[in-house]
Amino acid sequence: MKLKITFLSLCASFFMNAQILKPNGLNSDDLPGTTFKLNVDDFKRTVNTSRKNSEKIRNQSIVLPLIDGTKKEFILSENNLLNKKIDNIITFDGYSKDRQDKIKLTLVGNEISAMVKSGTGYYIIEPYKTKKGEYRIYNSFEMFGEKFTCGTDENDFKESLEAVAKGLNVQKSVSGFPYGSSLKTFRMAVATTGEFTTALGNQDAALGELVAMMNLINQIYESELSISFTLIDKTTNKTLIFTDGATDPFTIDPSFASAANSQSGFDVMNTNGTLPYADYDIGHTFNIMPGAGGSAQGQAGPRPCTSSLKARAWSQWTLSMPKSLSANLIVHEMGHQFGAGHTYNAVGGTSSSPTFCTSGWNSAAATEPGSGSTIMAYKNNCTTPNDQTNTGNNGLNYFHAKSIDQILNTLTVSSTCYSSVAVNNTPPSANPGNTAISIPKNTPFKLKGIASDAEDTNLSYTWDQVDVATANDKGAFGSTINGTGGYSAVNSTTAPLFRSEQSTTTTERYFPKMKFVLNNQNNPPVNEAEALPLVARTMKMRFTVRDNSVISGGADSDQVTVTVTNQGPLTVTYPNSNVTLNAETNINVTWDVNQTDVLKNTVNVLLSTDGGDTFPYVLASNVPNNGTAAVTLPFVPYTNKARIKVTAVINDYAEFFDVSDTNFIISSSCNAFQTIMVDNPKVVTAIQGSAQANLNLVPQTPSNDTYNSKTLTFDAANMTANSWYIFNQAQTAPYLLNASSSMLTLKFKATETGSYTLSYPSPSGVAITLYKGSQTGTANFLTSNAVYSGTGTSFTYYRTFTVNLEKGVEYFMTSRNLSSTPAGSSVVVSINGPGQFYDTVSLPAGVSFTYAAINTTTNTIIATSSTGNFTTLPVGTYMVQGISFTGAESTLVNKTIAELNQAKVCYQLSRNNITLNITSVLSAKELSKKPIGLVPNPVKDFLQVYSDEKITHYEIYDASGRLMEGNTMNNSAINFTKFKTGVYMLKLLNNKTLIHQSKVIKK
C-alpha cells in the first residue's frame, strides 16, 4: 500500500529561553546533566493550530540549547513513527540549520523531549521532574552501564545465537557494506504491563512515555543502521497499553526481566485475537519496576519476522530513571533481537550478582577487551572478582563492527519482513589502506584509513578489533588477568586486545595511544584496554566510516589483517634518558633491532621538541634498520622536551615504531618560537592556480606548550589589581563585585572550538571569571563559577563549570583564592574538552613568521607565504606548516628539512599542519602520450578504464577541486552511481605519480 502524505510548511521560528540554573551541571538528586528553563507554549500553539489541518507539519523552525550552553536552530518535520494522529502527541525529525546535527523531538501535552546527534555524540533534552518549564540536558550515554543490567543468557537462546554465528561464518567478514541509500522500516508492537500504566498514572501518560522513548530509539537505529520503526495502530490506540497487572497477558518475573514472558504474552494475544502475529514485525514489552532507586533491566533474543520469536524482548526500569538510560537499555535489547550478542570479553560480575558477566558472555561476539564500551557491551558491570571495566569513556554511543555484522546478517538471512524506501543519501567509502601487513610483537604501530563521501557530510572514523575470543580466551584481559585457558590476552593468539575508538578528525589510530608510549607504557595499565601482543598471531582490524547524515545514517567498513611476527620488539636505546645535548652536534641514535629488519629493512629517525606531541624534524630518512644512525641535531630552540622516534614506515597507511622513554634536553641559542595553527581545515584540494589554493591564513603568535591542567599559584608577585566581575543572582549578566581586587590573570587560547569543563578539587575555593578579548569589563565577560547571592558581597561558587570557546581566540582568566590557605598556595585546574589550552607569549626580537609548503615526496620547502597563498605551486601534495625563523625568508625556499639542519638555520615548525593537494588538468598533448581510455563518458553508472600503464589508485574531484573519493584501483571499473549529475575530475595514479587526469561527466 502506498501512503500519500501532504506536508504543511510553517515559517514560524521559536527561540526558547534556556537559562542555565546550576553552573556545576549537577542536580540535587545526582542525576546527570544541567538544568535550564524552557518555554514551549508558543511552539505548542503553532503545532496545535497546524494539526487542525489533516496534513503533516513540515519545516517548523525551533531554537534549542546545546550541551555546551549555546543555542542552535533546528528545522523540524513530522515523522512517520505514528501512522495516525494522536491527541496531544506529535513526533518530529529534524536537523540543525547548519546540517551538522540531527534531532528527534516529541511533544507530549505541554512538554517536549528530544535526542540530538551531534559531532560529539548524542545528548538528551527532557523534562526535569520538579516544576513546569524546567528541563535538563545531558550526554545520552554518560551513565550507561552503571545502573543497567541485561539478562541475555546464551543458554536461553543458544539455538538462535548459534544460527547467527553460523550464518556469519559463511559470509564475508564485511558483507552488507556500504549501506545508507535506503531506510528499512519494521512495524513495531510495543505492549505495556498494567504496572507500567499504573506507575505513569493513566493510559495517555503511558502512551506518551512509550512514544517519546521509541522516537529516541529511532534516532540511534536510523543513524547507526538505516533501520526505523513505526508503531502499529494497536499500540497507539492503547489496545496494548494495559491498565491492570492482574488481567494483562504478561507475567512479571520478580527476579529479573524475562524475554520468554514477553513472547508468552504476545502468544496469548495472538491466540485470543487481540494482536495476530501478522499485524507486526517485531514486539517488545515495557514494564516499570517498583522502588525509588534508579535501575534498569532487560532481556531479549532473536528474531523479528518469525512469529514465535519476534516478541522475545522485555525492558523494565524504575520511574526515576533518566530517559537516556531507559532508551539505551531498549536499544541494547533490540540489538539482541536482531542477533547481536554481547561484545565484551569478561567474566565474573558485580558484588550483588557475581556471575552476571560470566553467564552473559557470547561465543560469537566477544570482541571487546574486558567489559567493553560500545552499545552491546557491559561497560561498568564486570567488576568482581577482578575489575574488568575500561578506563575513561566506556559508554560509547555506537555499535561495534561485530555487532553491525551480526545485525546485517540477520537482516539478510532471517528478518526480511521490513519495507524499504530509497533516501537521498549516498553511503561513504571506507578503505583501511591495506589488506594485510606484518608487524613485530610488543611494538607500537599506527594504521591510517582512507575515507570519502559524495555528500561531504560529517564523517566519523572507527577502528575496531574484530577477533572473537575463544572459549579458552574467555575473561583474558590485557597483561594481568588470565582467562579460562590460564593465560592473559597479550599471550593469546586470538583474544581481543584493543578497545573500540572513534574520531571525527582523523582516520589514524595509534596502538596503543601515544600518551602511553610517551609515558614509557608500551603496554598500558590493564583497564586501558590497549594491550600490545607479546606472541605471534593475527589481528583483524576493522575501519568503519559513518557519514552521520541528517537524513539517514550510512556506513562503510573494511578490514586489514595485521600479522604479528616473533620478531621484535623494536626499541630506542639512545638517547633514552634525561641527557643534555647541544643543538648542531652529531650524535648516534641507537635502537634494538631484534630482527625487525626482516619486516622492514629501513627506518626513519625523527625528532620532537614538544615531548612527543609532534615529530616535525626528520633527522634521517630510509636509513638501514641496523640499530644505529649518525644524525645531526638541528639548530632548534632550547627544549627540555626532546624525544627521538625510530619508525619503520610500511607504506603511507601503516608503520611500526618506538619512542625514547623520557624527555631529554637540547641546549641552543636559537630563539625561534613555537606556534599552533588555528582556523584551518585538515585537508585542502585545489586545482593549480585556483582560488582554493589560497588558504588565507593569518600570522600566528608565539605560544607555550598545550596543557589539560593549569596550576594557579596565588603569590603576591603574580597578582595585579583588577575589576572583579561574577554572575548576577539570576545568572543572566555580569555583576561587579569589587572595582579593584587583587587577582591572578592568565592569557590563553584553545586549540579547538567547543565546550570545555573546568574543575578543581575540594576543599580548595577559587573564584574564576573568563573574559574574551580583554581581561575585564561587562562587554568582554564570558562566564564565572561564582554567582552573587543578592546581599552585600556574598556569593556562591562552584568547583566545576562549563564554557564554550572558539579556537585561536584570546581569552583571559582572572582568579582569586577564597580559602584560608597561606599566600603562595596553588590550585590545579583541570580542563576537559575537545582540545587543549595554551598560553601566548611575547614575540622574540629578530624572529619572523611565515607559512611553508613542504613537498611530501621530497621533504623540500617549495614556497613560502605569510598568508598561505600557494596558487603558484606545481601539481603535488604538500604539508603546509607555520615556520618561525631568523634571517632571510628566501633562504628557506628549495631547501629540504635536512638541508636546513645542515645549514644551521634557526627555525621551528608549527605543531600542526594542513595537507594541500594541488591538481591540474593535463593538456591534450600530455594526454596523447598516455594510451588511456575512459568509456562511457558521459557515464551513468560504471566508468571503464583501459590503460597500458600501471594504475594503483584513483581520485575523483568536484568542480571546485574538492576531493570526493579516493580509492585503490582493484579492477577496471569505477563506480559513479553515488555521484550527483555534474562534471568531475578523475585523477589516475601509480602510487603517488600522476598518470592521467581528465574530466568525466556524470549523467
What does this 3D model show about the protein?
Helix 3 crosses helix 4 (203-225) and helix 4 (203-225) packs across helix 7. The strands form 14 sheets. Strands 2-6-7-8-9-10-11-12-4-3 form a ten-stranded mixed beta sheet, with helices on both faces. Strands 24, 28, 32, 34, 35, 37, 38 and 39 form an eight-stranded mixed beta sheet that branches. It folds into seven domains: 7-139, no CATH class; 148-340 and 399-408, Collagenase (Catalytic Domain) (3-Layer(aba) Sandwich), CATH 3.40.390; 420-560, no CATH class; 571-667, Sandwich (Immunoglobulin-like), CATH 2.60.40; 683-702 and 843-919, no CATH class; 708-832, Jelly Rolls, CATH 2.60.120; 924-1002, Immunoglobulin-like (Sandwich), CATH 2.60.40.10. Strand 34 and strand 35 (617-624) form a beta hairpin. Mean pLDDT is 87; it is low at 1-29, 153-159, 164-173 and 922-930. With 1003 residues, it is mainly β. It contains twelve helices and 66 strands.
Structural descriptors:
1003 residues, mainly beta, Collagenase (Catalytic Domain), 7 domains, ten-stranded mixed β-sheet, globular, disordered N terminus
Summarize the structure.
The protein has 12 helices and 66 strands. It has 1003 residues and is mainly β. α3 (194-200) crosses α4.
> SS-based structural class?
mainly beta
> Biggest sheet: strands, sense, closure?
10 strands, mixed
Number of helices: 12
- In the sheet with the most strands, the strands line up as 2-6-7-8-9-10-11-12-4-3
Q: What is the CATH top level name of the largest domain?
A: Alpha Beta
Helices and strands, with pairings:
Elements: E1 7-9, E2 13-15, E3 19-20, E4 34-37, H1 41-51, E5 56-58, E6 60-65, E7 71-78, E8 89-96, E9 102-108, E10 111-118, E11 121-127, E12 134-139, E13 148-150, H2 158-169, E14 182-192, H3 194-200, H4 203-225, E15 227-231, H5 233-236, H6 259-272, E16 282-289, E17 296-300, E18 313-318, H7 323-337, E19 344-345, H8 356-360, E20 368-369, H9 401-413, E21 419-422, E22 429-431, E23 436-440, E24 445-448, E25 450-452, E26 460-465, E27 501-503, E28 508-511, H10 514-517, E29 537-546, E30 555-565, E31 571-574, E32 580-582, E33 586-592, E34 602-608, E35 617-624, E36 628-632, E37 639-651, E38 654-659, E39 664-667, E40 683-687, E41 703-707, E42 709-713, E43 719-727, E44 734-750, E45 754-759, E46 766-772, E47 781-784, E48 786-788, E49 795-797, E50 800-805, E51 811-817, E52 826-832, E53 837-840, E54 848-855, E55 860-865, E56 876-885, E57 895-896, H11 897-902, E58 907-909, E59 914-919, H12 924-928, E60 932-935, E61 942-947, E62 953-957, E63 963-968, E64 973-975, E65 982-990, E66 993-1002
Parallel strand pairs: 1-5, 2-6, 13-17, 14-15, 14-16, 16-18, 19-20, 23-30, 32-39, 40-59
Antiparallel strand pairs: 3-4, 4-12, 6-7, 7-8, 8-9, 9-10, 10-11, 11-12, 14-21, 17-18, 22-25, 24-28, 24-38, 26-27, 26-29, 29-30, 31-33, 33-36, 34-35, 34-37, 37-38, 37-39, 41-53, 42-52, 43-44, 44-51, 44-53, 45-50, 45-52, 46-47, 46-51, 48-49, 54-55, 54-56, 55-57, 56-58, 56-59, 60-61, 61-64, 62-63, ...
